TrEMBL record, chains A, B:
This is Pyrroline-5-carboxylate reductase catalytic N-terminal domain-containing protein. Residues 2-105 form the Pyrroline-5-carboxylate reductase catalytic N-terminal domain. One of its GO terms (molecular function) is cupric reductase (NADH) activity. GO terms for cellular component: plasma membrane. Keywords: Oxidoreductase. GO terms for biological process: copper ion import; NADPH regeneration.
Length: 222, 222
């Protein structure tokens, strides 16, 4: 399957791109507002993968061109850019495509990190509201530490929670997630349940800050 | 240390009472609005513990009397009763006591379970606002499945997150939590971070509902 990572030059985009290119045979392409940046990052990822004996092609494009070429479109952009990004690629999405959103609204204050959802109730709902008709939205990959994901030597052994209102789209993303070694995908229900999933992101940061030797945390349900 | 479980006849109270009485030498006492009920449950717990070779005394009292006798007072009551319960035992608390709150505000609708905090922002903050001066409040034990806790054959292997603004009180509760086999206590910061901790409770229910063979879930940070 071809997966476009919009904002694929950022940290969570890098982690997902490397993991999918390393552990699966999916065709990974990067999107960025700046296609030169996307191509430069794609070269970097190819070099990293090649150094591990994995000679695969990673291509870089504008977000629009990347979205146009892929069936799975991951919005690996900061939460305040997701709505703009969906709008910018709207004409590049067609029925059968799936939009995936890993962003969580997080606000920092003096006490710690807090969940700060958009007025839609969650970032996933915001994306669902902005998505064109016929293009289902799946929330997933929220609670993964980008640095740990991008370090292909790091073992995962963690879960990702998947929310969607479209069961086929959800199944597709569960399958994509489980292609990554050490990542288990769990169904957390519909998009109405996304806020509780996204809230885990600031929690992971708070726990890492307050406990020695814990960093780049993930979570496992057991 | 003597630990009073107010609402100790309910499910989370039962789980904590049995685990502390089974795994530690802390003196566990139960409180209830109805002292007869507390005594009857205390007898039940003694029988269960005795059947496992653990002959310990568990006493039952009114909430007021239980709070008066213990240094650690756990509010094992539903979230909509915590403020009333604190008020009812206010005169029984003295400086040096620690109030512990495991409740999370959870609301169910057609889509699933959702975090529904009181206007204070979290149940932990609500308790902190209601607590008498000089009695620190610690949020802990939110994300434990009561049935799994009460089943002494069930292995835990999970974490509990602890929030408090008073470091000594927090350390005391971390120590109490880690006395339970298979339970690891992690510091999640101050009470301002309680909402993200309490939000995990509805999430665990949603994940259990949507994944086969998952029930009585807990969480491990890794």
């Amino acid at each position: 399957m071809r997966i476009a990572l919009l904002g694929g030059t950022g940290d969570i985009g890098e982690g997902l791109a490397l993991r999918w290119a390393y552990h699966t045979n999916h065709d990974v392409i990067l999107g960025s507002r700046d296609p030169e940046k996307a191509r430069a990052k794609a070269d970097e990822y190819e070099t990293e993968l090649s150094s591990r004996g994995r000679d695969v092609k990673v291509n870089g494009f504008t977000n629009e061109m990347a979205a146009d070429r892929a069936r799975i479109v991951v919005l690996a952009v900061p939460p305040y850019h997701v709505a703009d990004t969906v709008e910018s690629v709207e004409d590049s999405l067609s029925e059968g495509d799936v939009l995936v959103t890993p962003a969580a609204g997080v606000k920092r204050d003096d006490d710690g990190f807090h969940y700060h959802p958009p007025s839609a109730g969650s970032v996933t709902k915001l994306v669902a509201d902005a998505a064109p008709d016929g293009v289902p939205v799946v929330g997933a990959f929220h609670n993964l530490a980008a640095g740990r994901l991008a370090d292909l030597d790091a073992e995962l052994g963690i879960d990702t929670l998947v929310v969607a209102d479209d069961d086929d789209a959800k199944d597709t993303v569960v399958h994509l997630a489980e292609g990554i070694d050490g990542l288990r995908a769990l169904d957390a229900g519909g998009i109405a349940n996304a806020a509780e999933v996204e809230s885990v992101t600031p929690l992971l940061i708070n726990v890492a800050r307050h406990n020695e030797k814990m960093h780049d945390l993930g979570v496992q349900f057991r």
